[in-house]
Amino acid sequence: MNRRFTIPRLGWVIAGMLFLITLINYTDRMALSVLVGQVREDLRLTEADYSHIVTFFLVAYALMYGASGYIVDRLGTKRGLALFVFSWSVAQMLHGLAIGKWSMAGCRFLLGLTEPGNFPAATKAIREWFPPQKRALGVGIFNLGSSLGAAVAAPVAAFIGLRYGWRAAFVITGLFGLVWLVAWAVLYEAPRKNRWLRHEELAQLEAEGLFREKEEVRPRVNWLAVFKSHPCVMLMVARFFTDPVIYFVIFWLPAYLQKERGFGLEDIGKYGWVPYTFGGLGYLIGGWLSGKLISTGWSLPNARKAAMGLGAVMLPVGILAPVMPTASLAIAASSFVVLGHAIWIANLLTLPADIFPSHEVGTASGLSGMGGSIGGILATMLTGYIVTKFSYTPLFIWAGLMHPLAFFLIWRYMPNRLFPQPLRAA
After folding, report:
1. DSSP-H helix ranges across 188-273
2. d(CA 205, CA 338)
3. Whole-angstrom Cα distance, residue 229 to residue 225?
4. What is the Cβ-side half-sphere exposure of residue 188, based on CA atoms within 13 angstroms?
5. Half-sphere exposure at residue 4, Cβ-oriented, CA atoms within 13 angstroms
6. CATH for 10-188+223-415, among 2.50.20.10, 1.20.1250.20, 3.30.420.10, 3.40.1550.10?
7. What's the CA gap between 372 and 240, in Å, rounded?
8. 318 vs 248: CA distance, rounded Å
9. N or C: which end of the chain has fewer CB within 10 A?
10. Which of 92, 152, 131, 123 is nearest to 273 (CA)?
11. pTM
12. Per residue in 289-298, pLDDT tens?
């Protein structure tokens, strides 16, 4: 008897794969900030040069984030994500060939053009595999990779950099994504087309309401209509204010610890991972919490907003970081920034999948991310100036206030009526 081989709990396996590639995405992205001391010394870069290089990455990131979601919607989840993973892995490896400021900036620009596709593609995959009440947890799981990727980058890049040099660190981390692609090509298809999915699990997904939309030929995405829609505008505004905060932590916290707290590369490798581990916990808490609230009778919009509010109120603790008497307490205060942002973003990133139809999820997610990247560009340009002329203190104050502001805007200007078919527990 010929029995079909299947994989149990395949949806969670897919979420695990998305977690892993997001971890790789952030490991690649963070490598430069971890190795900045070696790179600056070898390539004779100033702090202003470094801020310009970071800005090149963010400009490309902003330009492509909006387009990447549309590309994923047009190519489909499997091919779209594969294209971006292959491209950014090659771009990461090219960093090892940089010989100066502009060649490094060019490599960062290429990385910025190719990395953002990870997030609309992963959100679209979660939309294809998870019903609404489990969706935020799925988004939280794959975004856990961003925090753990940032945490892993510190010891991994530092170890490789100390032993083999910073150039080898970029080449080796770039190879990780190419290895992941093999498993992705074999395992991924949407549930109704996936040969590895068990029949009983497909039936359970149908019973949970995953396939509410008809699966006939979908209309082409009207990019401009999505861009002009009120929910998309609000998502872009929310990310404009809050994404720069995590960019600040990713790109500047290691530099802050080195300049203001006397850390060396070995110290960054030992302790730089701590805030991002709290971020990983936050992604799981944020995703679990809104799903739990839905299961107890909360409407979907109120559940998402409540979880986002919890995350937002944690950020002001970060204002204390630069005045803490010890480096360990400064890291602890910074951990609240990453924890609160993770709870916030696990739900904010889920909103495109909640609000928009399946064929527009990638586009809406990409456009919202573009808003965050534009905010990141402006913030990074100011960061380089403020750090050079003043100190890090004003930046920590700013970082602590942005999420409460964005939460107020979401609560006030994104009413529940914008969410189609509000979901309550049965």
Report:
1. 199-207, 223-228, 230-261, 265-271
2. 33
3. 6
4. 25
5. 9
6. 1.20.1250.20
7. 4
8. 12
9. N
10. 152
11. 0.75
12. 998 999 898 9
